[in-house]
Amino acid sequence: MQLETYISDLLYRYDCVTIPELGALLTKRHSAVIDEVSSAFYPPKKVISFNEQLQQSDGLLVSYISEVEKIPFSTASEKVQKYVRSIKSYLIEGETITFKNIGDMVLNNEGKIVFQPAYHINYLTDSFGLEQLSTPEILRETYTKEVEEIEKVIPITVSNPKGNRFLKYAAVAIIALTLGIVGAGAYINQQIADHNKLAQEEANEKIDHSIQEATFVIDNPLPAATIRLEKQSGKYHIVAGAFRVEENAENSIKQLRSEGFKARILGVNKYGLHEVVYESFEDRMEAIEALRDIRKNHNSSAWMLVRDLE
Hints:
Blueprint: H1 3-11, E1 16-19, E2 23-30, E3 33-35, E4 40-42, E5 45-51, H2 60-69, H3 73-92, E6 97-99, E7 103-107, E8 113-117, E9 133-134, H4 140-153, H5 165-179, H6 182-212, E10 236-243, H7 246-258, E11 264-268, E12 274-281, H8 284-297, E13 303-306
Antiparallel strand pairs: 1-2, 2-5, 3-4, 4-9, 6-7, 7-8, 10-12, 10-13, 11-12
């Protein structure tokens, strides 16, 4: 009879499994532990112990055997008694009895049973699938000494913040990679992002200023005239040019309207220039198509301005 198999099954479910006339196997829950010496993490588990004083049958083991083997309770009880007598005889002869996945039993000099539990199996169902985990120690002091040596070889100085900006980033990046510190990497990324944002803003301002000061070239300017324009809507505007003198803006509108465009003055920008647009659109895709057509057939310098009308 595979008594240890039945006992193992019950140890997963109960904290006490009594072997009649031999003793009781008890389990106690232990929390997860960390071994500082080996840097190993052990999950929570049940630790098995043995109490020789608890020999009175509670019916748990016998009932389970009766159910599994489909035999009467009395027959299962007789089989357990016979098995226990065999175990005791071997113990008296000085042999060690091994219960697979449970532990070993042996008699000491006083005739008492000494139990050594097995540690390779965890009977705590809450920890199913959790294994021992080991992690290497982090040698922070070693990295600090390495960085000090690098600093001696590669001194980091920045005399001109603008001219040596990328050198500064490269030097900081070397330290960050050597130290393996995430914070240093984040600081560098933020510095680079700030630099890129500033450079982009400066470039946009120069482009905007250059475009806004562009003039619409007319070979034969027409005399000034008062033009009545219908109200237009839309926030996507195809810009023809911008003029310092309002009269020139009016002349360009008249010429564009004679060519079939719904031209008008959009307003005065922050540079004091009068913006002239071919047309305004509600739909962005329509504005893009119109801009492509105008650049191809009329004015390659035309561009699109996105602005909500007041």
